[in-house]
Write a structure and sequence with these properties.
Helices cover 39% and strands 12% of the residues. With 256 residues, the chain is α/β, with parallel strands linked by helices. It has one domain: SGNH hydrolase (Rossmann fold), CATH 3.40.50.1110. The strands form 2 sheets. A 5-stranded parallel sheet has the order 2-1-3-4-5, sandwiched between helices. The longest helix is centred in the N-terminal third of the chain and has 22 residues.
């Protein structure tokens, strides 16, 4: 009887260890930075990562901007050295309705920029974030502790940008596409795939369709749009954004 009990206990311990190992093992690791549209309360990122079998590192904070992302990179608080090593993709959803492309004040290297950043120039902060991430991934080739040590290109960096969740924010959505063309970066086009357009009003309400799916409103050029989409896994917009995100990332992530 004692032997049977011992065997049963060992079997249960083995199953528990297997479960822990299985739960903590993902195919990919994806980092997200952003503000209120990307924070964990939304759930589109987490749902999308679940479909991708990816570990979600959601560092989005409501009220922040791309300047905060840049400052957190400088301070070393956006991601750790270990996380940089493990990241398969860096997704940026800082979608304030600002020009993120303007090249008039850009500097050659990210180290040329005075820090900390403020919110005076969104294009400069985007330039800093992109250049710094690309540089840090490349420089892993010189880190003896990195598995990329001694490789010609270091860690290949995948940066993914996003549009706003609908097409009302013309300034940002158009300028981020210029940024994508400049760097050759992939873009998650929530605005083109969300299921409605600002070009046509809803046939029943006579208003912007985005209002039906938002918990508050914003005025853009005198037109009322939905601002923050309803949050939570039961929200249609969160489910749709998760599907759009997962579909795009499935095309971008390396096969493992």
């Amino acid at each position: 009887m004692k032997r049977i009990l011992i065997v049963l206990v060992l079997l249960q311990l083995s199953l528990n260890l297997f479960a822990v190992e299985k739960d903590s093992t993902y195919r990919y690791t994806i980092l997200l930075t952003g503000a209120s549209f990307a924070s964990p309360q939304n759930t589109w990122f987490e749902m999308g990562c679940r479909k991708l079998d990816a570990r979600p590192l959601n560092r989005a904070v409501g009220g922040e901007a791309i300047a905060n992302t840049a400052n957190r990179m400088k301070d070393g608080t956006l991601y750790s050295v270990k996380e940089l090593e493990d990241l398969d993709a860096f997704v940026i959803m800082q979608v304030h309705n600002k020009d993120v492309f303007d090249e008039s004040h850009l500097l050659t290297k990210y180290t040329d920029y005075p820090t900390p950043f403020n919110r005076d120039n969104y294009a400069m902060a985007f330039d800093y974030v992109i250049k710094r991430y690309l540089s840090e991934c490349y420089e892993l080739r010189n880190n003896p502790q990195s598995r990329y040590y001694g490789t010609p290109a270091g860690k290949l960096a995948l940066i993914v940008l996003c549009t706003d969740w609908h097409d009302g924010r013309k300034i940002y959505n158009s300028s981020v596409r210029k940024l994508v063309d400049k760097w050759g970066l992939p873009l998650i086009e929530f605005d083109k795939n969300i299921g409605f357009s600002d070009k046509m009003l809803h046939p029943v309400t006579g208003q912007q369709t985005s209002l039906l799916y938002a918990k508050d409103t914003q005025m853009i050029d005198g037109v009322k749009y939905g601002w923050h989409p309803v949050r939570g896994e039961q929200s249609y917009i969160q489910q749709r954004m998760a599907a759009i995100f997962a579909d795009m990332m499935d095309k971008l992530l390396p096969l493992k």
